[in-house]
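Repro case for the chain-ordering regression, as requested:
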Amino acid sequence: MAEKNLTLQLDFHSGFPIYTQIVNQIQSQLANGILKPGDQLPTVRALASELRVNFNTVARAYRILDEARIISTQQGRGTYIIEIPPPEVTEKLRQDSLSELTKRYVGEAFRLGFSEREVSQMVKDTLKSWKDAKQVKDEE
Amino acid sequence: MAEKNLTLQLDFHSGFPIYTQIVNQIQSQLANGILKPGDQLPTVRALASELRVNFNTVARAYRILDEARIISTQQGRGTYIIEIPPPEVTEKLRQDSLSELTKRYVGEAFRLGFSEREVSQMVKDTLKSWKDAKQVKDEE
DNA sequence: CTACAATACATACAATGATACAATTAGTAC
DNA sequence: GTACTAATTGTATCATTGTATGTATTGTAG
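-- result from build under test --
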């Protein structure tokens, strides 16, 4: 499961952007079981070389897939199909997962000796600064 | 003497560099007494093996901590928590560690698609129920 | 034609990994 | 104890991988 050859077929005259074609075909191959969770995708440069396009174009496709939680790109390491492909989770499962995540966080914070007040305040501050940071670079 | 197992939790798709996560978590554990002055940290290779990362990544984290006068790295000997931690930075370390922990939590929650409101509410609820319920479970 | 947006590319950068090296320690033979 | 060798530890350097930012090209509306 080292390296998938990822035979993609690009059509340069179809009118569809290359990065879109890459995105769609990877999604398709995942849906059809050609790609499986945990599989490592070619590096942006390797795939770009094979497809005869600029590696930034591949990187753009990977970035879209990453934001869609389909793959996980890790600088300096590589790109992988995400382990737990996000299925259609129900709202209950959604809440449960947040609850679990929060319990782990609060438990860890208390284990480290922080007070309820400290935790509460830090969450508030972090949420605020996170939102501020997002507003700067978000344009969607 | 004191050989710490150093249970660190890395998140490879959090967006935060691995070496930064290592730095922050060691700071955190020192600030909260899990690590103590004089303690020997795992070798760069041992910790790297446990975390499934390259040992240079651990070395980079150690180097940063060394430059911050938090640990002492000695070629051929090992790395140790510095004997006399500057007291004026203790509280800062504590705050930094909570900040880092919180950032990881919030980042993960957002990555899973939860809103600021949901996160805020869940933290509030979790803190409340935590206080209400006596912890029956022992320390882990 | 001009203006604008989208796309693809070029370049510099940051994070991680691989490899060879230097310093120290621990044995081991004498 | 000394001298030698091997193992262990951190260090230095470069390669590999993805990221960030700017630029050129293309298509299209006005």
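Ordering looks correct now. The two ends of chain B are 22 Å apart (CA to CA).
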